[in-house]
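Predict structure. Chain length: 262.
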Amino acid sequence: MKKCKKDHTLKLDEKYYDLLVNGEKRFEVRYNDRDYAVGDFLFLECSNGRALCCVVRYILSDFVGLKPGYVVMDVDFLHEYIPGKKIQETVVINGVRWATRNVAEPGTFAANPEDSGMFYQWNRKKAYAATGDVTDWDSSFPTGTEWEKANDPSPAGYRLPTRQEQESLLDKSKVTNEWTTVNGVVGMKFTDKENENSIFLPAAGSRNYGNGKLCVAGEGSNYWSSTEYNSPNAYYLRLGRRIACMSDIYRVYGLSVRCVAE
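Prediction complete.
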């Protein structure tokens, strides 16, 4: 009879967290009071609120020098998450570690993966609401040759993706895309063919460069890259029911931000 995979929530010393995320530490030594098995998921939580999920690939037991009752588990990092909610903070898709939610106010994420978050003009940190009208729209031209770190609205440990990182989502040999609905919100879902990780990019639309009016909400997903196209334009990820491509757009538009881990 095939054994079912199990979830195990365990405490983790903070000093090992980044080592597991970065792949420098690929094992866990634990007392085997839970009947660990290959394929089980380890939800490892630190006292500072950080948490990650790993999958068990191999288990070493009854080895000379190993304390009786203990096992060494070979593990692969899958994603970070919010303790209690089990919302994944990041997932790796085609080699890039993506946040699972849009940026809201500078330095914060939207509450849920399907939430729109807020709009930003290229190389600016001021946030605009994704619904309704705005009265303080800045129609002046954003300068710079890249999205500067001081103007990056991403939370700590994250940054705007480059053009090449966004293009990795469009590699059909490694990633699938599907225009779909999540909790009543339409958008594009990207899924890694190998590890089956996925992210959902809600169709929040955009704000017009001239007056800040809301455009194509619920019809298109438009996400900034940090990469300049030319003096007036910058690259962005353009998504819709029948389209998924890189394009360029006037920097004064207000688009969504989906960041990557540094």
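Summary: The mean pLDDT is 93.
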